[in-house]
Amino acid sequence: MIKIKSPICLSFKPPSALRQQTHITNMRPLACLDGDLKSGVSGIIGETNTGYLGFVTAKKEKQDLVAAENKDRKAIYTHIAKKEQVSTQFVQERRAASLFSNAAKGHYYQNKAGVWVKK
Questions:
Q1: Residues 6-52: pLDDT tens digits?
Q2: Is the pLDDT of residue 66 over 70?
């Protein structure tokens, strides 16, 4: 379950975490990342349809930061999947759907067909 914390910055908490008042806060949508990764507005980095950051263009700036963020996201997806007894892919798809519908204006996201779209 994805809980909207604010219209711009989402928190991603599974139902059991909500029941236990446990907060998972280290996974942020592109709109909430620090200045080093806010290349989404410039069309370099976007949210993929699998819940990770990806490169919109061939220009791959900040690869190390994108890789670090994606590593964190993978750990969170895996944790949630185990806790909720669902597949990691299911968790990723739910998160991607949320990011898709809540993408900030000017940011890029990848639709279900894998096409990059600017909101």
A1: 333 334 444 444 333 333 444 555 555 555 555 555 678 889 999 99
A2: yes
- pTM, two decimal places: 0.68
Rounded to whole angstroms, the Cα distance separating 63 from 112 reads 24
CA angle, 94 then 100 then 104, to 5°: 135
Half-sphere exposure for 84 (CA within 13 Å, toward CB): 22
Identify residue 106 by its one-letter amino acid code: G
Task: Say if CB 80 and CB 14 are below 8 A apart.
Answer: yes
Q: Cα(72)–Cα(68) distance, rounded to whole angstroms?
A: 6
> Are 25 and 10 contacting, i.e. CB atoms less than 8 angstroms apart?
no
Where b means 16+ CB within 10 Å and e means fewer, 74-108 reads: eebbeebbeeeeeeeeebbbbbbebbbebbbeebb
DSSP state of 10: -
